[in-house]
UniProtKB/TrEMBL annotation:
Gene3D superfamilies: LCCL-like domain, von Willebrand factor, type A domain. This is Vitrin. Residues 1-26 form the signal peptide. The keyword Plastid does not apply. Promotes matrix assembly and cell adhesiveness. Plays a role in spinal cord formation by regulating the proliferation and differentiation of neural stem cells. The lineage of its organism: Eukaryota, Metazoa, Chordata, Craniata, Vertebrata. Residues 167-183, 206-219 have a biased composition (Polar residues). GO terms for cellular component: interstitial matrix. Its main location: secreted. GO terms for molecular function: glycosaminoglycan binding. Keywords: Disulfide bond, Extracellular matrix, Glycoprotein, Neurogenesis, Repeat, Secreted, Signal. It comes from the Eukaryota.
Amino acid sequence: MGIVVLTMKASVIEMFLVLLVTGIHSNQEMKKMKRPKFTVPQISCDVRAGKITNVEFIVKCPPGCQDPRYHVYGTDVYASYSSVCGAAVHSGVLDNSGGKILVRKVAGQSGYKGSYSNGVWSLSLPRWRESFVVSEGKPQKGVTYPSSLTYSSSKSPAAKAGETAKADQSPSVPGTAAQPVSVTQVPGTTAIEATHTTLPKPFPSAGSTTSSLQPQPVGQRSKDLDLWSTTTYINSQNSPQANPGFVPKEELSTQSLEPASQGDPSCKVDLSFLIDGSSSIGKRRFQIQKQFLTDVAQTLDVGPAGPLMGVVQYGDNPATQFNLKTHMNSQDVKAAIEKISQRGGLSNAGRAISFVTKNFFSKFNGNRGGAPNVAVVMVDGWPTDKVEEASRFARESGINIFFITIEGASENEKQYVLEPNFANKAVCRTNGFYSLTVQNWFSLHKTVQPLVKRVCDTDRLACSKTCLNSADIGFVIDGSSSVGTSNFRTVLQFVANISREFEISDTDTRIGAIQYTYEQRLEFGFDEYSTKSDVLNAIKRVGYWSGGTSTGAAINYALELLFKKSKPNKRKLMILITDGRSYDDIRIPAMLAHHKGVITYAIGVAWAAQDELDVIATHPARDHAFFVDEFDNLYKVVPKVIQNICTEFNSQPRN
């Protein structure tokens, strides 16, 4: 019997060892098996974070999500109503070519600030129920990411039933305020209804009461799960009579989430206020100045499609309080103005103007390029430094300077003014349009409407025009046989180098060109190309003609075919390049060009006659006629021509 038992025990041990070895081999085989590869889900640019119920996920965005059609709300932390991929571009995690990103849901914010970043305008939003942040699409260790996303519009019946039961479990006690509810997210659902993409209802009044409460049906926003409210919404409030702030469900379904105004499009300007924070102004008058700014912001209707506004405060030194891209509506601007505290010190307005010219109106700070730049300088009494030189540089940079002088120097005080007539030396034009004088601080509020009307009159903002963005430039190119094919390509490079210096568009500088020998040929007109790249490509395509040299006939041809179609508000510039003496008379055509207001630059090469260049060129010839002995030296003339064009433009009278 004992032998049988031992045999059985040995058999059991043997079987156990066999199973153990088998299990180890099986486990090793399992480890050798290749793990399934993680597939990154792809989404389109218009997918909003709130539509995706997953809390943390990696997705791949397509190219083109920088498009303004895909709305983004917030900066760094984004409202879940935002385009996921649009937010990724705005944050700088992606560029417009797309790619992988990691998205993580976070709590709703009490407010979201709009800004301009990486080619995307994000909008401001007072508050939203859920937020998200984006980062590089690198998986975190120990985290499993879904290969497919769950969308709120595709919830299973079981998930919906679970939500209904959850909503029914803890109704609020009648007659008492509801306690804040802690909501736990479960797979396939969101803590709050992600399908609901309309604005929240206003808060109920503090005195509202009820005798009965009913759970809300699934598919509508659950009133006792509303993370914005700390009190219970009640049935008696669900009527306009009981609660004047109540928004009916029918209206909520069509109400737009976007801010009420995108700004006044008839006043699209980039506006900087330079406010006086010097010690002499005092706290009371500084507060009046802030109230003035607040009134201006309200009147302007700030927004991305209209005016944008920033503030620089100056004392001894200037400092930006907020720039053009910081706030996208009047309410946010007003709130920011209220937070400004006085700097103290002197009243160095000239230093502030230099600061604004060099730093404020940059793309990084929200300058839009197509909108006029306006700087409104406010000064108490008079500046403690000189403004003339700084203002001249600002004007040449395309900034329209307005000056508001409050409580200017009396007759007895004028001896203390460092720079007499400082306002006229600073403003864009001395015709009175850009200067406002206020007798005392308590009358400053009367200036709001006149100032807003003037800064919004973009047709009269004369300093928006610079030497580089306000001309029609016609090139008259000698294609005669003496030039030769190789040198002709050098001439075209000269034409391209000059064109490259200008701001080219259908509303800025326009470029045209003709080529001449005995005959003339229009290569392209002013209205043919409206971008710099198109103009440069058109210049490359010009073919060498070869023939004689009839410069007089070419000037007449340019006046008729090019400059006759020039816009009235454009400076007319003719740049003629020739390598020899003309076969015909150039005097009468040149005089006709001068009479028609065409500013002519004559560029001679090699065998060109200096006496003819002086006749063709606008007076004085020393500023408009240039000669080089070889075609390869043409490049040296480019900076001289550009400099003279701008010097002549900037020396125009400012009245």
